[in-house]
Amino acid sequence: MLPRHVCEGGAMDRKIKRVSLVDQVYSEVLGQINSGELGPGARLNIEDISKLLGVSRTPVREAISRLIQDGYVEQKYNAGPSVISFSIEKELDLSDANDYITEVVMKSLNELDDIGPLADELGDVIEAQRQAFAEEDFEEFHRQSSLFHETLIRWCPNETIRDFADHIYRQLNLSTLRFQQIEANRQTGLAQHSAVYEALKADDIGLALKLMNEHDLEGTMKIRERINNKEDKK
User: Fold this and answer.
1) Residue 219: CB partners within 8 Å, gap ≥ 6?
2) Torsion sign across C-alpha atoms 22, 28, 30, 33
3) I need a labelling partner for 49 at 20 to 30 A (CA). Which of 5, 83, 179, 224 fits?
4) pLDDT, position 142
5) Contact assessment for residue 44 and residue 82, using Cβ atoms and an 8 Å cutoff
């Protein structure tokens, strides 16, 4: 039953959005990837997913095709689809690329007539991230942390840069699951996101750029440490 304030007083203000089966399957599989339930290299069996979700194989195939296009899933020759998996060296390459492209994205915000709406969106994300941290809801924390970066990218006024940044971040984001499993890292990430938000709220894009550079560089240094530790064990 609809809430009384919706039923009374005339027509509804917003239309109900219809979500396709493909969208639902996409969201379900992506949610399992982002939560870590489906880890790197995990096989995606179309028949099993179809039975589990109670849908035909067609929307499952279409959803997986979108996941491949968005960089979450890969289709290797002579093998079924699986969650994308890459070496730590490839992870470092993605992180370095993300550092560069994020700086470009942040600088492009100077082209916006008003960054107030962007700051408002980020404020909502920060609040949700804080709540998830307080409730120790790791999955929701990771979702909101990702949304923080995705929101900045979405506001980039250059479509080509935006698409490139989005593709890189989608792949790199899979590795942040490991990083955010440590509570101290979640706390640091939240503090850094909050500082970037406050800078943008104050209309100081230069400071926000500096803070984002520091935030991204810390993640890259963590990957370099893992590579060094790997080399030391040889």
Assistant:
1) 95, 176, 179
2) negative
3) 179
4) 87
5) yes
Q: Which CATH number fits domain 88-232: 1.10.3720.10, 3.90.1150.10, 1.10.760.10, 1.20.120.530?
A: 1.20.120.530
Cα 156 from Cα 151, distance rounded (Å): 9
Q: Spell out a b/e string for 106-141, using b for 16 or more CB atoms within 10 Å of the CB, else e.
A: bebbeeeeebeebbebbeebbebbeebbeeeebebb
pLDDT digits (tens, 9 = 90+) for 218-227: 888 988 888 8
Burial of 40 (0-12, 13-18, 19+ CB in 10 A): middle
The phi-psi region of residue 54 (left if phi > 0; otherwise alpha if psi is between -120 and 50; otherwise beta) is left
Q: Which one, of 173, 211, 177, 176, lies nearest residue 194 by Cα?
A: 211
Q: 166-214, pLDDT tens digit by residue?
A: 989 888 887 777 777 788 989 999 999 999 999 999 999 999 999 999 9
Fill in the DSSP letter of residue 83. Answer: E
Domain locations in the chain as residue ranges: 21-83, 88-232
Residue 111 has pLDDT above 50, yes or no: yes
Q: Any residues with CB less than 8 A from the CB of 158 and at least 6 apart, and which?
A: 108
Angle CA 89–94–98, to nearest 5: 145
Predicted TM-score of the model (pTM): 0.76
